[in-house]
Amino acid sequence: MSAESYLRIGELSRRTGVSVDLLRAWEKRYGLLEPSRSGGGFRLYSEADVARVEAMQHHLAAGLAAAEAARQTQRPAARERGAGAVEPAKDELAEALARFDDAASHAVLDRLLATLSVEAVLAQVVLPYLHELGEAWERGDASVAQEHFASALVRGRLLGLARGWGGGSGPHALLACPPGELHDLGLIAFGLALRGHGWRITYLGQDTPLEAVAEEAERLLPHAVVLAFTRPGAVQAAEIAPVAKAAPTWLAGSGASGEFAEEAGARLLSEDPVTAAARVATT
What is this structure's pTM? Predict the structure, then answer.
């Protein structure tokens, strides 16, 4: 790993949303973190440390005591599973959701989140699965009931991971779906990925009046507003313009286009949610 890949503890705190004091306590009490030293004696943390902190947070959210959460995070077997288990896990998740087995579905997600970062689970499992499910539904290979069950379960799980995503001191993003838009899984995934870059998230959710988005943008002065919608023509550029005037605005989803975004005074996000989050975070 190059020197540029290492983080000071303040950046690690910003990336994970865990306070510096708590990170130091986890390092001292449980040996959770494995920092190296800079030439000046500063502790430097790696992406592996980021992954361990995220796994620790997951175990704590599941109700484990801190000591047990640390043990589960540091289990060698858990760290060895890694990417090699992604494809089998994705197939297992699809099968569990297809038979409406919520317990098995959550168990697969539990295992993945214990070994991979949230961004990796989104990019390698959840988003590809949702894309394949949508294609299966269009072909008639998946029923409306299957699509609704799977979407509801995944949405609930993602919102669980989003708990506390408005905290911290990083840049601030305001996310919403315009009126009539109920498909927000991609936007939630985007918010989680952006949170992984240290951003704070205010999520207004589905079917939000654009006047309300503009009002909140004027009040909160976010670093970015992201509007996601799937239906072309669902909103007019003139309706988005007041939002774009209040704060830098990005449009995402299949309902947006470059020409439409330019007309509205916004910018287009045409990438997948995880890649789009990285783009916004570095712009």
Answer: 0.72
